[in-house]
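protien #1 (seq + structre)
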Amino acid sequence: MADGNITKDAMYDAVAPDDFVAMLEIERYNARSSAFDKIISATHDHFWDPLNTAYIDFSEPFDTVNEALMPETMFPALQTDYVKSMLSDPKDRIRFINESTRWSLSSILHGEQGALNLSASLCHVLKDQGAQEYAANQTREEARHVTAFAKYIKARWGTPMACGPVLQNLLVEIIGSPEVYKKIVGMQMLVEGLAMGAFATFFTETNDPLLKKLMQLVMTDEAFHHKFGKIWADRTVPKLAPEEHAIVEDWAAHCFQTLLFNLVAPHQQREMYESFGMDVDKVVEELQLIATDEMRREDMKKATNIFRVLIKTLLNAGIISDRTRAFYGMYVDMDELKAEGETMVGDAIADEGIKYLQAINFKKPSVTTLLAAE
């Protein structure tokens, strides 16, 4: 624990970001772990290119003026008397839904940028070649996610919205942390788990076929990113001393609580609410009347609820102990969650997406493809 990394397996050995000399050690080149080989090799199965219309065409139209991208029931603020009074025109309600969706997708875009930077930072510190190659692959995949979400947002609205303060601060904290366990738990498990829940929700609920396709394509990658964190947990958590487990567990609970109470709070979306002439404090005041703990518990019964997915991720990783079980148990039935097993929300969606990609990727390359590759 001298370096704060709480390393329990040699394949997670790390050095300082500026210690490139450590990467040139001769012994290192013959000490490659095979733990990541399967997910590295599977990269070819879920390859896709956001710039190639054979995979996804961002020119597909959608009437954002007259059609809502998501169901109205997905937006609790629309249940408050204050917001209802400010959006008496049905078209204003559609615009509110679509602008709220724009904010959510902008947050996802910023999260993908954070995942890109974090993956790249792991390449600089992980000594094991297998772990380093996996991180390099993920960096490439996160880069295409940034491109894809940026292109979707540009097609529907022109520009993304600014990152909310809480998400921005958490991303900065995770990416800048010198401790590898914080990077893996914070990003590879919590933020990636959050993303899988969000993507599954968008895939299931959206009225836009293009957004549905985008979510499935991204999920084919994210399902593997999630596995990287699970491998870390399987190799690390059972070997932690009680005081080390408490450090990891408290860090996870800190991240979860920060996201639960702040991620989609109106104050994080101030720009969006003010564009409708609304007083954010008034929105918060009325939301507090309906957003009770009981409402949260009921919402977390849904398999795609992002916070339910986060809790299940931590529980399956062995990070939640009796110390924090009651905290998470305020919102979900922990025994029911455990009984669900290892299957994660979005796995089936990702599997179908991989079949779709295999049908494209394993066709004989066209002349256009070959020319593009040159």
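ok now protien #2
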Amino acid sequence: MRDPSAPARPAGPGAGRAAEPESAPLRWGVLGVADIAVRQVVPAMQKSPRARMEAIASRDLAKAQAAARSLAIPRAHGSYEALLADPGVEAVYVPLPNHLHVPWAIRAAEAGKHVLCEKPLGMNAAEVRGLLAARDRAGVVVAEAFMVRAHPQWLRVRELVRGGRIGELRLVHGHFSYNRRDPDDIRSRVEWGGGVLLDIGCYPVTLARWLYGAEPLEVAAVLDRDPELAVDRFVSALLRFPSGQAAITVAGQTAHFQRMQILGTAGRIEVEIPFNPPPDHSARILVDDGRDVSGAGVEVMRFDPVNQFTLQGERFWEAVRRGAAVPVTVEDALGNMAVLDALFRAAETGGWVAPRA
């Protein structure tokens, strides 16, 4: 049954296809052989009966064939265009470098394919507006692949915040870092959307916006660039929301660490592994009533091991087959991109900047 809160999809190229049975798995094509696709996302989605990987493409046919063999995918294509023309593909997963996200997501939508695109959805908000228009013309489902927003630990956190467990939300603090400096890595290319703010800063930003249920009024940032590669490597950001704040730090050349704290007037929630919880280990959040700093008022909530990439694929299936809302819509992605744009501008100007979604 269609989710009445989900926006109706307009008529377009995707609307004219013969409807699949509601229980049928979604037939996927993968646009590229990026590590995140072949090592994490595709194997995870293959664990679900709601996904069937039909084809994978690379501009190097041999690479596509090797990936298809290793993942037991029936068809390999030597070009992205060939995959988009494949009649056996209903939905396309786009794990390409950041600067190729919107151009190929638009081409996929225009080919009548539903699109799940890696984060960040675009290089800037203007690009995402173009994809939003293409989605509406084509009448297909398009979503940003923030898998964290399908994970049970985050659904529970949001439920606790909305239910008043920690009082009124006042501060969200997030940190995400890793240590990698490789000139050959796509994340080291400024012109390809490299740097830590787009790569990992987008995570605490989307979660802060999601928890507040609002857009920040203005943002400030301090940004440090690698002297040789020119990509941003350390970023500290402040977001001022109508009812509170978010403080975010991200780094690409420090120790690997991640944590999020959500603080309200009557308690706090700590998410131990907020972004990459291992799929074979249980996840934990700590809910503290704030009675003292020793943790006497802490309740530990555990979640059974899940693969958030599998869950992300199933949520996308529900959107296509049943008309449910995707976890992260293009409109939501546009809001996130506007904040990231504003953070770059704030770092350049040294002042507070209002996002322009």
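Residues 207 and 221 are 18 Å apart (CA to CA).
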